[in-house]
Amino acid sequence: MVSMDDRGRVLIPKDVRRRVKARLFTVELMSDGSIVLKPVTSEVLELAGKFKDLLKYRSMEELEERQEEYVRSGRGI
After folding, report:
1. Nearest C-alpha neighbor of 63 from the set 73, 53, 50, 49
2. Beta strands, E only, the chain
3. Helix residue spans in the chain (DSSP H)
4. Residue 24 pLDDT > 60
5. Does the pTM exceed 0.85?
6. DSSP 12
7. pLDDT of residue 71
8. Which of 1, 20, 27, 77 matches a 20 to 30 Å C-alpha distance to 64?
9. Cα–Cα distance measured from residue 22 to residue 37, given in angstroms and rounded to the nearest whole number
10. How far is CA 58 from the centre of its chain?
11. For the CA atoms of 63, 67, 69, 71, what is the dihedral angle to 10 degrees?
12. CB-based contacts of 70: which residues, under 8 Å, 6+ apart?
């Protein structure tokens, strides 16, 4: 059993951390109210590095606008 502190942090027990061997997780809230942590693998992080230029956009709308401009310019598919 674990508890949440006043800042919303949950301590994952050491034996679980050793078995998972990850420091970055995605969080999913399930329909029954349970929370699922899924470790992000190093392969995913390496792939994310290839798309680091996408991180300069502040919103999905801005990213979509840039994508449309790219396609209109004739460089797209």
Report:
1. 53
2. 25-29, 35-39
3. 14-20, 42-50, 60-72
4. yes
5. no
6. P
7. 80
8. 27
9. 11
10. 15
11. 180
12. 76
Distance separating alpha carbons of residues 31 and 68, to the nearest angstrom: 35
Q: Which two three-digit tokens encode residue 11? A: 């301590």
What is the C-alpha to C-alpha distance for residues 75 and 37, in angstroms, rounded to an integer? 39
Average pLDDT over residues 56-62: 68
Q: What residue type is assigned to position 68 of the chain?
A: E
In the numeric block, the tokens 């078995």 are attached to 19
Contacting residues for 5 by C-beta, under 8 A, at least 6 apart: none
Radius of gyration from C-alpha coordinates of the chain: 19
For residue 14, pLDDT over 80 is answered with yes
